[in-house]
Write a structure and sequence with these properties.
- 2 copies of one chain form a homodimer.
- In chain A, strand 12 and strand 13 form a beta hairpin.
- Chain A is globular.
- In chain A, helix 3 packs parallel to helix 8 and helix 3 packs across helix 9.
- The first copy, chain A, contains 13 helices and 17 strands.
- Chain A starts with 14 loop residues before the first helix and ends with a strand.
- In chain A, the strands form 6 sheets. A 5-stranded antiparallel sheet of chain A has the order 6-5-16-15-14, sandwiched between helices. In chain A, strands 1-8-9-7 form a 4-stranded antiparallel sheet.
- Chain A is α+β, with helices and mostly antiparallel strands and 391 residues long.
């Protein structure tokens, strides 16, 4: 028990047991589900129909889905076509009911929330951060536009090396209550964001940065005049057809860690993907503007394949976009968290993992998930094989 | 937001907003509900039928139920007869879905768990603590028997003055992660219990002490060789017919705060009461031994009315027992948390509050809840008035 604590829960091998019970290590707040879970069609027995399917994990390299899941220390894996579960599997201490942290997949929820507020008329994409948060004037983000935050082209002086104790990303984690504090640490996420002072030229390049999302979340909160966790709950989570509450970690002052702190059930993450493939409507109700989803899937201006994240394509509205044409897009978090959606095949893939390297197998994940989502083999799996029931 | 933090969440007026979202301040672990919530019969509109009823709050003093709820800063209040909701009301930020901390009502769950392990044959009431926890030899509790722990007749040198920063009860809270740490604090609940060294004569008197329950929980964990939170979940919570998960706070090492850390929905606390009035059976399944419930309701050996808790009657197996004859018993926690059951009228009352004084209105609560549970007026409320639906 004592070996898993605040200073070890993120590290291998402890993260295998910790990532699905983050509430034991970090303060959380609850995001309540809505009243009607969306039905998913499921076999009576666990369908693991894709296990033997071959997928490309790198140019020229192929392996079975089972081997890919093993290679990437998978905790949970689901593939949906429409509302039909083609494959669903849990490993280690994970089960359908466990809530797993989604890390930076949290960012992609924030991106969709921005689209909702733009549609409301309460958020101006061309405004600078100081319009909403005057206290950030003179800091790293003050002159960045909301659009630059969304597309990760703000240019804070910020080291994202996740395993480096001196990097800003670890200081941010400490301020958020994710790691034991050190003398001189900022008192909470908002104080940490205010402590960031230097920056390069906003808009000149892609720069993936967790603090950028936390500033964005703060902007959304100010624009809507509603606390960020409440925005997430009332504008998104209650309308994705979730079967369970989600959670988000909060710092000592109650500020949510928007860049990384959400935990949820695997099926509920997949349901969020279904909502997006349904153009943002659920049961006839508009949740997310269709135009915002379409714009997101059309991608950003900068090639991201050269960056440390090793994910090919572009980045737009807090989503990774592999090609900008097919409509496919994905959300990704460290230690192997993914949500992949592909409208051409109507496929949603959600995956939780507990990799030892934060960015472990980033390229392999992108290749494999794209390969699975686009596989002609999936269309051969007739729905009739899976009509065991609904969940 | 910043005004509610780890060092203020328990204090008035902050506790009004904090006690129903403890997970924002303290680490927690989830106690999953079972698969079938028990149905409760409810009016279509909120039934507040008892509001005008007069209750005795002290000898000779009467007031309406509405005034009693207001006087005691009530957060949530429910009265059941059988599975029929006679009265249900929520105040402040509380709703049927919120989970409120039950404080020392948690102790009474521990007491029922002990009865289950006795029935299993894994717990010996006459054994001393050191049989199960050799590391406590020489400490405050080493020579106490399990029965003495259950009946709060162990005699640790322990100050329960909740608002005194120098009292052991606050040191225990700090070790459990409930208050900001101080230099020299024990590292976690178990280390805190080991740090307690002095005691009086066990068994000689009633001495209500939170650490006594934490030692008991540790004993149960060792006796069953199952972590305490898992015992609570698998042996009790999954079998009370709960509609939602419960939570219990944990320290930095993951040890649950057995004496006070459980949070749950009001209706689910009431369902636990229903289980006890049903002699420990739910849907034909034995959950808690009937004989253990009967023994508990027969009461203990010491009059408790003279103690600082100001609750008349005796104490047995982590329950307060008003008379030892009627079968009535109750669980009570600071700031006004109550579960009252009365088999003679088949009444269950559950109440959450956020009083300013930890032991505020203890005597008034006992009087009023006893008065409501025993009132002839309740039998005049015909079930037909309340057949609006089930929840």
């Amino acid at each position: 028990m004592t070996s898993r604590s605040l200073d070890t829960w993120l590290d291998t091998p402890h993260n295998r047991d910790s990532l699905h019970e983050v509430q034991r290590f970090v303060r959380t707040t609850q995001l309540e589900r809505g009243s009607r879970p969306t039905r998913l069609l499921v076999e009576a027995k666990t369908p693991t129909g894709l296990s033997a399917m071959s997928v490309a994990v790198e140019s020229g390299q192929e392996m079975s889905v089972a081997d890919f899941l093993s290679l990437t220390n998978t905790d949970a894996f689901i593939v949906l076509r429409g509302d039909q579960i083609l494959h669903e599997q849990y490993f280690g201490g994970n089960r359908p009911k466990t809530r797993h942290i989604v890390m930076s997949v949290s960012k992609s929820f924030c991106g969709m929330l921005a689209g909702i507020l733009v549609e409301d008329g309460t958020l101006d994409l061309d405004a600078t951060v100081t319009k909403y948060i005057p206290g950030l004037a003179g800091g790293s983000f003050g002159t960045a536009t909301v659009r630059q935050l969304l597309d990760m082209t703000a240019a804070p002086d910020f080291d994202m090396s996740y395993l480096n104790p001196d990097a800003e990303v670890q200081a941010g984690d400490r301020a958020a209550g994710w790691r034991p504090g050190q003398p001189g640490d900022a008192d909470g996420t908002r104080a940490f964001l205010q402590s960031l002072q230097r920056s390069g030229i906003h808009g000149a390049a892609f720069q993936y940065c967790s603090a950028t999302t936390d500033v964005l979340a703060w902007v959304l909160e100010r624009a809507a005049d509603v606390p960020y966790a409440e925005l997430l709950e009332t504008r998104i989570w209650q309308h994705v057809g979730a079967e369970a509450d989600a959670q988000i970690t909060v710092d000592a002052s109650g500020t949510p860690y928007a860049c990384a702190g959400m935990s949820m059930r695997l099926r509920d993450l997949a349901r969020f993907g279904r909502l997006l493939l349904g153009h943002g409507r659920l049961d006839g109700t508009r949740v997310i503007p269709r135009s915002w989803i379409d714009t997101t899937a059309s991608g950003g201006s900068f090639d991201t394949s050269d960056t440390s994240n090793r994910r090919a394509g572009t980045y737009k509205n807090q989503w990774w976009v592999p090609d900008g044409k097919s409509g496919a897009m994905f959300a990704a978090g460290i230690f192997g968290q993914y949500l992949w959606i592909d409208p051409t095949t109507d496929i949603v893939i959600a995956k939780f993992s507990s990799e030892s390297d934060p960015l472990g197998h980033s390229a392999e994940h992108s290749h494999a998930l794209r390969s699975i989502a686009g596989s002609p083999a999936l269309s051969e799996l007739a729905p009739a094989q899976h009509q065991g029931g609904t969940i």
